[in-house]
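Possible regression after last week's pipeline update?

I re-ran a chain I had predicted before the update to compare outputs. Posting the input and the new output here so someone can diff against the archived version. Not blocking, just want to make sure nothing changed silently.
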Amino acid sequence: MFFGFGPKSSILLIFFFHGIVFSFLLLKKGIQSDIKSSKWLSLFVFLCTLYITPFMLGYANWYSEPPYRQILFFIPFQQLFLIGPVLYFYSQSLLNSSFKISKKDYIHLVPAFVYMVYSLIVFITDVFIVDEPYFYADGRDKDFDLWYQIAGLASMVYYLVLSLRFYINYKKIAFETVSFADSILFKWLQHFFIAFLVILLLRVLYFIINPEWGQFGRKFWYYLCFSALYYYIALSGYSNTVKAMIPINTPVDESDPDIPNQHTEKKRLEITIPNTDAWKQKLLDLMLIEKLYENSSLTVSDVAAQLKTNTKFISSIVNSGFQMNFNDFINYYRVEAVKEQLKNDAQKTKTLLGIALECGFNSKATFNRAFKKHTSLSPKEFLATLS
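New output (post-update):
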Protein backbone atom coordinates (compact mmCIF):
# COMPACT_ATOMS: atom_id res chain seq x y z
CA MET A 1 0.00 0.00 0.00
CA PHE A 2 1.55 3.31 -1.11
CA PHE A 3 2.33 5.88 1.61
CA GLY A 4 4.54 8.89 1.01
CA PHE A 5 6.83 9.23 4.01
CA GLY A 6 7.62 12.92 3.85
CA PRO A 7 8.43 15.14 6.86
CA LYS A 8 4.83 16.32 7.28
CA SER A 9 3.11 12.96 6.79
CA SER A 10 5.64 11.20 9.04
CA ILE A 11 5.20 13.65 11.92
CA LEU A 12 1.41 13.37 11.77
CA LEU A 13 1.74 9.59 11.46
CA ILE A 14 3.58 9.50 14.81
CA PHE A 15 0.74 11.40 16.50
CA PHE A 16 -1.81 9.22 14.70
CA PHE A 17 -0.16 6.03 15.95
CA HIS A 18 0.08 7.30 19.54
CA GLY A 19 -3.54 8.50 19.40
CA ILE A 20 -4.73 5.02 18.43
CA VAL A 21 -2.58 3.43 21.16
CA PHE A 22 -3.82 5.78 23.91
CA SER A 23 -7.40 5.42 22.75
CA PHE A 24 -7.07 1.65 23.11
CA LEU A 25 -5.32 1.89 26.51
CA LEU A 26 -7.96 4.26 27.87
CA LEU A 27 -10.76 2.00 26.66
CA LYS A 28 -9.04 -1.03 28.19
CA LYS A 29 -8.59 0.73 31.53
CA GLY A 30 -12.19 1.94 31.45
CA ILE A 31 -13.52 -1.58 30.86
CA GLN A 32 -11.23 -3.32 33.35
CA SER A 33 -11.75 -0.78 36.16
CA ASP A 34 -15.31 0.18 35.20
CA ILE A 35 -14.39 3.86 34.85
CA LYS A 36 -16.89 5.63 32.60
CA SER A 37 -14.76 8.75 32.19
CA SER A 38 -11.91 6.68 30.79
CA LYS A 39 -14.22 5.27 28.12
CA TRP A 40 -15.42 8.74 27.11
CA LEU A 41 -11.86 10.06 27.01
CA SER A 42 -10.94 7.09 24.82
CA LEU A 43 -13.62 8.12 22.34
CA PHE A 44 -12.50 11.76 22.50
CA VAL A 45 -8.88 10.80 21.73
CA PHE A 46 -10.05 8.54 18.89
CA LEU A 47 -12.09 11.37 17.35
CA CYS A 48 -9.07 13.68 17.59
CA THR A 49 -6.98 11.01 15.88
CA LEU A 50 -9.55 10.77 13.07
CA TYR A 51 -9.48 14.57 12.85
CA ILE A 52 -5.83 14.66 11.75
CA THR A 53 -6.11 11.55 9.55
CA PRO A 54 -7.12 13.18 6.22
CA PHE A 55 -4.21 15.60 6.41
CA MET A 56 -1.76 12.88 7.37
CA LEU A 57 -2.94 10.86 4.37
CA GLY A 58 -3.05 13.98 2.20
CA TYR A 59 0.58 14.79 2.89
CA ALA A 60 1.29 11.11 2.16
CA ASN A 61 -0.25 11.67 -1.33
CA TRP A 62 -3.26 9.40 -0.80
CA TYR A 63 -5.68 12.09 -2.00
CA SER A 64 -3.83 12.31 -5.32
CA GLU A 65 -3.58 8.57 -5.96
CA PRO A 66 -6.43 6.34 -7.17
CA PRO A 67 -8.20 4.40 -5.78
CA TYR A 68 -7.40 6.02 -2.39
CA ARG A 69 -8.81 9.39 -3.43
CA GLN A 70 -12.23 7.99 -4.38
CA ILE A 71 -12.46 6.05 -1.12
CA LEU A 72 -11.22 8.76 1.26
CA PHE A 73 -13.65 11.37 -0.04
CA PHE A 74 -16.56 9.35 1.29
CA ILE A 75 -15.16 8.72 4.79
CA PRO A 76 -16.29 11.42 7.29
CA PHE A 77 -13.04 11.58 9.28
CA GLN A 78 -13.73 14.91 10.93
CA GLN A 79 -16.66 14.38 13.28
CA LEU A 80 -16.90 18.02 14.36
CA PHE A 81 -20.45 17.67 15.72
CA LEU A 82 -19.41 14.73 17.91
CA ILE A 83 -16.22 16.05 19.54
CA GLY A 84 -18.09 18.66 21.62
CA PRO A 85 -20.74 16.33 23.08
CA VAL A 86 -18.09 13.72 23.90
CA LEU A 87 -16.10 16.38 25.77
CA TYR A 88 -19.27 17.28 27.69
CA PHE A 89 -20.08 13.66 28.55
CA TYR A 90 -16.47 13.07 29.59
CA SER A 91 -16.62 16.04 31.97
CA GLN A 92 -19.86 14.79 33.51
CA SER A 93 -18.66 11.20 33.89
CA LEU A 94 -15.40 12.37 35.50
CA LEU A 95 -17.10 14.63 38.04
CA ASN A 96 -20.39 12.87 38.71
CA SER A 97 -20.32 9.33 40.10
CA SER A 98 -24.00 8.83 39.26
CA PHE A 99 -23.72 9.99 35.62
CA LYS A 100 -25.21 7.90 32.87
CA ILE A 101 -26.65 8.92 29.53
CA SER A 102 -30.39 9.46 29.67
CA LYS A 103 -32.85 9.72 26.79
CA LYS A 104 -32.75 13.52 26.89
CA ASP A 105 -28.97 13.44 26.43
CA TYR A 106 -29.32 11.89 22.99
CA ILE A 107 -30.37 15.28 21.64
CA HIS A 108 -26.70 16.28 21.87
CA LEU A 109 -25.88 13.58 19.32
CA VAL A 110 -28.52 14.61 16.76
CA PRO A 111 -26.27 16.96 14.71
CA ALA A 112 -23.58 14.28 14.44
CA PHE A 113 -26.19 11.70 13.41
CA VAL A 114 -27.62 14.05 10.77
CA TYR A 115 -24.16 14.65 9.34
CA MET A 116 -23.51 10.90 9.19
CA VAL A 117 -26.79 10.47 7.28
CA TYR A 118 -25.77 13.30 4.96
CA SER A 119 -22.39 11.58 4.36
CA LEU A 120 -24.20 8.32 3.61
CA ILE A 121 -26.50 10.07 1.12
CA VAL A 122 -23.48 11.63 -0.60
CA PHE A 123 -21.82 8.21 -0.86
CA ILE A 124 -24.88 6.38 -2.17
CA THR A 125 -25.75 9.13 -4.66
CA ASP A 126 -22.30 9.60 -6.17
CA VAL A 127 -21.33 5.93 -6.23
CA PHE A 128 -24.54 4.05 -7.01
CA ILE A 129 -27.13 6.45 -8.44
CA VAL A 130 -25.57 9.04 -10.76
CA ASP A 131 -23.15 8.33 -13.60
CA GLU A 132 -21.04 11.38 -12.91
CA PRO A 133 -20.28 12.69 -9.38
CA TYR A 134 -22.93 15.13 -8.22
CA PHE A 135 -21.88 16.06 -4.71
CA TYR A 136 -18.20 15.68 -5.53
CA ALA A 137 -18.36 17.47 -8.86
CA ASP A 138 -16.05 20.13 -7.40
CA GLY A 139 -13.53 17.48 -6.34
CA ARG A 140 -13.34 18.71 -2.74
CA ASP A 141 -13.85 16.72 0.46
CA LYS A 142 -17.17 17.61 2.09
CA ASP A 143 -15.56 17.54 5.54
CA PHE A 144 -13.83 20.80 4.60
CA ASP A 145 -16.88 22.71 3.42
CA LEU A 146 -16.83 26.14 5.05
CA TRP A 147 -20.32 25.78 6.54
CA TYR A 148 -19.39 22.51 8.25
CA GLN A 149 -16.08 23.81 9.60
CA ILE A 150 -17.69 26.95 11.07
CA ALA A 151 -20.69 25.04 12.47
CA GLY A 152 -18.33 22.45 13.96
CA LEU A 153 -16.24 25.16 15.61
CA ALA A 154 -19.39 26.75 17.06
CA SER A 155 -20.48 23.34 18.37
CA MET A 156 -17.16 22.78 20.14
CA VAL A 157 -17.23 26.25 21.69
CA TYR A 158 -20.77 25.65 22.93
CA TYR A 159 -19.91 22.34 24.59
CA LEU A 160 -16.74 23.73 26.13
CA VAL A 161 -18.90 26.41 27.79
CA LEU A 162 -21.36 23.74 28.99
CA SER A 163 -18.51 21.67 30.39
CA LEU A 164 -17.05 24.67 32.21
CA ARG A 165 -20.45 25.49 33.73
CA PHE A 166 -20.79 21.90 34.91
CA TYR A 167 -17.31 22.02 36.46
CA ILE A 168 -18.10 25.26 38.31
CA ASN A 169 -21.29 23.68 39.66
CA TYR A 170 -19.31 20.61 40.70
CA LYS A 171 -16.83 22.73 42.66
CA LYS A 172 -19.69 24.38 44.52
CA ILE A 173 -21.22 21.00 45.39
CA ALA A 174 -17.83 19.62 46.46
CA PHE A 175 -17.28 22.42 48.96
CA GLU A 176 -20.79 21.94 50.31
CA THR A 177 -20.65 18.17 50.76
CA VAL A 178 -17.12 16.97 51.61
CA SER A 179 -14.30 18.07 53.88
CA PHE A 180 -11.60 17.19 51.36
CA ALA A 181 -12.82 19.26 48.41
CA ASP A 182 -9.35 20.53 47.48
CA SER A 183 -8.16 17.01 46.74
CA ILE A 184 -11.02 16.20 44.32
CA LEU A 185 -11.14 19.38 42.24
CA PHE A 186 -9.55 17.51 39.31
CA LYS A 187 -6.96 20.18 38.47
CA TRP A 188 -6.17 17.96 35.47
CA LEU A 189 -9.60 18.77 34.02
CA GLN A 190 -8.85 22.48 34.27
CA HIS A 191 -5.69 21.85 32.21
CA PHE A 192 -7.80 19.83 29.75
CA PHE A 193 -10.18 22.75 29.30
CA ILE A 194 -7.27 25.13 28.76
CA ALA A 195 -5.70 22.82 26.15
CA PHE A 196 -9.04 22.47 24.34
CA LEU A 197 -9.56 26.25 24.46
CA VAL A 198 -6.13 26.75 22.90
CA ILE A 199 -7.13 24.30 20.15
CA LEU A 200 -10.25 26.37 19.41
CA LEU A 201 -8.32 29.65 19.47
CA LEU A 202 -5.78 28.20 17.04
CA ARG A 203 -8.69 27.10 14.88
CA VAL A 204 -10.03 30.66 14.74
CA LEU A 205 -6.54 32.02 14.08
CA TYR A 206 -6.00 29.67 11.16
CA PHE A 207 -9.43 30.49 9.78
CA ILE A 208 -8.20 34.07 9.57
CA ILE A 209 -4.74 33.23 8.24
CA ASN A 210 -5.94 30.62 5.78
CA PRO A 211 -9.62 31.17 4.90
CA GLU A 212 -9.43 28.65 2.02
CA TRP A 213 -9.92 25.79 4.48
CA GLY A 214 -10.75 23.31 1.74
CA GLN A 215 -7.20 23.58 0.43
CA PHE A 216 -4.13 22.17 2.18
CA GLY A 217 -2.32 25.52 2.16
CA ARG A 218 -0.46 26.29 5.39
CA LYS A 219 -2.66 24.20 7.64
CA PHE A 220 0.13 21.76 8.53
CA TRP A 221 1.18 24.00 11.42
CA TYR A 222 -2.35 24.06 12.75
CA TYR A 223 -2.60 20.26 12.59
CA LEU A 224 0.82 19.94 14.20
CA CYS A 225 -0.26 22.19 17.10
CA PHE A 226 -3.58 20.33 17.34
CA SER A 227 -1.75 16.99 17.43
CA ALA A 228 0.61 18.13 20.20
CA LEU A 229 -2.28 19.42 22.33
CA TYR A 230 -4.46 16.36 21.95
CA TYR A 231 -1.41 14.16 22.61
CA TYR A 232 -0.99 16.05 25.90
CA ILE A 233 -4.68 15.47 26.65
CA ALA A 234 -4.34 11.75 25.92
CA LEU A 235 -1.18 11.31 27.98
CA SER A 236 -2.36 13.38 30.96
CA GLY A 237 -5.85 11.89 30.82
CA TYR A 238 -4.46 8.37 30.97
CA SER A 239 -2.22 9.16 33.95
CA ASN A 240 -5.04 10.98 35.78
CA THR A 241 -7.78 8.40 35.28
CA VAL A 242 -9.85 8.16 38.47
CA LYS A 243 -13.39 7.34 39.44
CA ALA A 244 -15.86 10.13 40.14
CA MET A 245 -16.47 10.56 43.86
CA ILE A 246 -19.47 12.87 44.22
CA PRO A 247 -22.98 11.95 43.02
CA ILE A 248 -24.63 15.12 41.73
CA ASN A 249 -28.37 15.74 42.08
CA THR A 250 -28.95 12.76 44.34
CA PRO A 251 -32.24 12.52 46.26
CA VAL A 252 -32.45 14.11 49.71
CA ASP A 253 -32.84 11.79 52.66
CA GLU A 254 -35.67 13.05 54.87
CA SER A 255 -35.40 11.17 58.11
CA ASP A 256 -35.73 13.90 60.74
CA PRO A 257 -39.31 14.38 62.00
CA ASP A 258 -38.45 17.90 63.21
CA ILE A 259 -37.84 19.06 59.65
CA PRO A 260 -40.84 19.99 57.49
CA ASN A 261 -41.58 17.16 55.05
CA GLN A 262 -40.29 17.81 51.53
CA HIS A 263 -42.20 15.90 48.88
CA THR A 264 -40.52 15.07 45.59
CA GLU A 265 -41.36 18.07 43.42
CA LYS A 266 -39.78 19.67 40.43
CA LYS A 267 -39.57 23.09 42.07
CA ARG A 268 -36.98 23.72 44.76
CA LEU A 269 -38.29 24.24 48.31
CA GLU A 270 -36.59 26.33 50.96
CA ILE A 271 -35.88 24.59 54.26
CA THR A 272 -37.14 26.23 57.43
CA ILE A 273 -34.69 25.48 60.22
CA PRO A 274 -36.37 24.96 63.59
CA ASN A 275 -34.38 25.97 66.69
CA THR A 276 -31.22 26.98 64.87
CA ASP A 277 -29.14 27.55 67.99
CA ALA A 278 -29.82 24.03 69.24
CA TRP A 279 -28.71 22.52 65.94
CA LYS A 280 -25.61 24.72 65.87
CA GLN A 281 -24.70 23.43 69.31
CA LYS A 282 -25.12 19.84 68.13
CA LEU A 283 -22.66 20.53 65.33
CA LEU A 284 -20.22 22.19 67.72
CA ASP A 285 -20.41 19.17 70.03
CA LEU A 286 -19.48 16.91 67.13
CA MET A 287 -16.47 19.10 66.41
CA LEU A 288 -15.26 19.98 69.91
CA ILE A 289 -16.21 16.84 71.85
CA GLU A 290 -16.45 14.04 69.28
CA LYS A 291 -13.68 15.61 67.14
CA LEU A 292 -15.36 14.40 63.97
CA TYR A 293 -13.05 16.62 61.93
CA GLU A 294 -10.22 14.12 62.51
CA ASN A 295 -11.87 11.88 59.89
CA SER A 296 -9.99 12.91 56.74
CA SER A 297 -12.77 11.57 54.49
CA LEU A 298 -15.62 13.22 56.42
CA THR A 299 -18.66 14.16 54.35
CA VAL A 300 -21.86 16.01 55.05
CA SER A 301 -23.63 12.64 54.85
CA ASP A 302 -21.53 11.37 57.76
CA VAL A 303 -22.52 14.37 59.88
CA ALA A 304 -26.18 14.00 58.89
CA ALA A 305 -26.08 10.34 59.90
CA GLN A 306 -24.60 11.25 63.30
CA LEU A 307 -27.41 13.75 63.93
CA LYS A 308 -30.09 11.55 62.32
CA THR A 309 -31.14 14.16 59.81
CA ASN A 310 -30.55 14.87 56.10
CA THR A 311 -27.67 16.40 54.23
CA LYS A 312 -29.58 19.40 52.89
CA PHE A 313 -30.55 20.37 56.42
CA ILE A 314 -26.96 20.14 57.68
CA SER A 315 -25.71 22.26 54.78
CA SER A 316 -28.35 24.88 55.58
CA ILE A 317 -27.28 25.04 59.23
CA VAL A 318 -23.61 25.38 58.32
CA ASN A 319 -24.31 28.04 55.67
CA SER A 320 -26.71 30.17 57.70
CA GLY A 321 -25.42 29.47 61.21
CA PHE A 322 -21.68 29.70 60.60
CA GLN A 323 -21.54 31.61 57.28
CA MET A 324 -19.26 28.95 55.78
CA ASN A 325 -19.56 26.06 53.38
CA PHE A 326 -19.13 22.56 54.79
CA ASN A 327 -15.53 22.16 53.59
CA ASP A 328 -14.39 25.42 55.18
CA PHE A 329 -16.36 24.67 58.36
CA ILE A 330 -14.58 21.35 58.94
CA ASN A 331 -11.18 22.72 57.93
CA TYR A 332 -11.60 25.59 60.39
CA TYR A 333 -11.71 23.12 63.29
CA ARG A 334 -8.84 21.16 61.82
CA VAL A 335 -6.78 24.35 61.70
CA GLU A 336 -7.79 25.18 65.28
CA ALA A 337 -6.69 21.70 66.37
CA VAL A 338 -3.32 22.15 64.65
CA LYS A 339 -2.86 25.56 66.28
CA GLU A 340 -3.60 24.07 69.67
CA GLN A 341 -1.00 21.35 69.19
CA LEU A 342 1.58 23.88 68.03
CA LYS A 343 0.94 26.02 71.08
CA ASN A 344 1.62 22.92 73.18
CA ASP A 345 4.98 22.38 71.39
CA ALA A 346 3.83 19.23 69.56
CA GLN A 347 6.20 20.18 66.71
CA LYS A 348 9.12 19.19 68.94
CA THR A 349 8.15 15.52 68.74
CA LYS A 350 6.18 15.41 65.48
CA THR A 351 6.54 16.83 61.99
CA LEU A 352 4.23 19.61 60.92
CA LEU A 353 2.70 17.32 58.30
CA GLY A 354 2.22 14.60 60.89
CA ILE A 355 0.28 17.00 63.09
CA ALA A 356 -1.83 18.10 60.12
CA LEU A 357 -2.67 14.49 59.16
CA GLU A 358 -3.52 13.73 62.79
CA CYS A 359 -6.01 16.60 62.77
CA GLY A 360 -7.81 15.37 59.65
CA PHE A 361 -6.00 16.92 56.68
CA ASN A 362 -5.18 14.50 53.89
CA SER A 363 -2.29 16.31 52.21
CA LYS A 364 0.32 18.97 52.82
CA ALA A 365 -1.04 21.20 50.03
CA THR A 366 -4.59 21.12 51.42
CA PHE A 367 -3.29 21.83 54.92
CA ASN A 368 -1.22 24.82 53.80
CA ARG A 369 -4.11 26.33 51.81
CA ALA A 370 -6.62 25.89 54.64
CA PHE A 371 -4.22 27.23 57.28
CA LYS A 372 -3.44 30.31 55.21
CA LYS A 373 -7.13 30.87 54.51
CA HIS A 374 -8.22 30.73 58.15
CA THR A 375 -5.26 32.47 59.78
CA SER A 376 -3.80 34.65 56.99
CA LEU A 377 -0.47 33.06 57.91
CA SER A 378 1.45 30.07 56.65
CA PRO A 379 2.09 27.32 59.24
CA LYS A 380 5.75 28.40 59.50
CA GLU A 381 4.77 32.04 59.93
CA PHE A 382 2.36 31.04 62.68
CA LEU A 383 5.11 29.06 64.41
CA ALA A 384 7.31 32.15 64.29
CA THR A 385 4.67 34.11 66.21
CA LEU A 386 4.85 31.57 69.05
CA SER A 387 8.57 31.96 69.63
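Follow-up from reviewer: compared with the archived run. The mean pLDDT is 87. Marking as no regression found.
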